Amino acid sequence: QVQFVESGGGVVQPGGSLRLSCAHSVSRFQQTSVGWFRLVPGKEREEVACIGTLGTSTQYAESVKGRFPVSRDFIKNTVYLQMDNLKSEDTGIYYCAPPRPEYYSDYCSNFRLEAFGPWGQGTQVTVSS
Question: What is the mean pLDDT of residues 90-108?
Fold first, then answer.
């Protein structure tokens, strides 16, 4: 089963930064939007950010808007989530995924949890003093 691979998580103090990476070696990666999601303790998996196929269209959850810019490198086949001014409530497992075929969109117009998958292992982010 085709999956994207997340990396870059770690432990950081409040106010600190991390950069998460989402990599895939298949050329299809370059032809799809990519969404970031997180599983926060005590909550269901939730949307974080999405970037469109061309890298010019983005969407963000209100809780991360202005703090977590998303970008993509077409040469490296990688999507990045730069996480700045981290807060304790950002602690969780972060996942990236493409839209499911029936919800495909170049512009993240279907950016909601049920429209994306499959899920990989994720990368743990812990924000703690």
Answer: 92
DSSP 14: T
As given in the structure block, the two tokens for residue 121 are 């292992």
> How many H helices and E strands in the chain?
0, 10
User: pLDDT (tens digit, 9 = 90+) per residue, 42-64?
Assistant: 999 999 999 998 899 999 999 99
Q: What is the pLDDT of residues 1-18, one digit of tens each?
A: 556 899 999 999 999 999
Compute the distance between CA of residue 106 and CA of residue 129 in angstroms, rounded to an integer.
39
Sign of the alpha-carbon torsion through 57, 84, 43, 29: positive
* pLDDT, the chain, mean: 91
Strand partners, 116: 99
| Best CA proximity match to 112, nearest among 120, 103, 121 | 103
CA–chain centroid gap for 4, Å, is 10
